[in-house]
Amino acid sequence: MSKLLLLDIDGTLMNSKKEIPESAKAALIQAKENGHDLAIATGRAPFMINKVLKETGIRTYITFNGQYIVHEDECIHREALDTDLLSSIVEFAEKRAHPIVFMNEKKMVSSIDYHPDIDESIKTLKFPHPEMVEDFHKDHDIYQALVFCEEDEEQQYHDTFKEMQFVRWHRVSCDILPKGGTKASGIEHLIRATGHTLEDTIAFGDGLNDLQMMEKAGISVAMANGHEETKKRATHVTDHVDEDGLANAFKHLKLI
Predict the structure, then answer these.
(1) FRET partner for 186 with CA separation of 20 to 30 A, picked from 21, 67, 77, 194?
(2) Per residue in 225-234, pLDDT tens?
(3) From which residue to which does the signal peptide run (predicted)?
């Protein structure tokens, strides 16, 4: 029976060198030939995954952790962050000297000209420090924002903005998402478009922002390099991403 395979990028599809292993590429091709549907499920923006889409031939993706979804190159769901609420978060963050980065489907911009925390974390995605554009969030739809603060400074955001989620993805950065806006909610929109059921879905991930997606999917696979909580809750834990983890998981599940 055809399955819908939901693939996180960083630490799952891409190894520690930010490359897709040859074994993973071969596994994706074989799975597609075997009739399975492939989709990217990422916290990244659409403009950040062009190289991955080109390398894999995948044309369906959940981006911004569920805020912007494309099926076969056609956008089927988009949900921007509330502008007034975002402005309140910006004001709150500025008082604490915490910079913000805003993203839409085409670009990312910063609330500040330069900040070492932005530089450090964005570089891990192989992107340069974004340019500063004043009040960008007031004139454009923003599908995801990032606030730059350390872990011990994070709780005040949870306490103050209860209608939002703050999901840590880096030592100095958290995704800002609406409550309920997750890769998991993205699956609901996607299966309506593809005709699959939840039981037909298999989620592959490694991070905390994959947890809800993995709990919703029929089967979940965590990478050995993943967060301990992710591994604890997965149906199956495969090998490290650098040790053919994705290909080995496809074999274990008899997808190839």
Answers:
(1) 21
(2) 999 999 999 9
(3) none
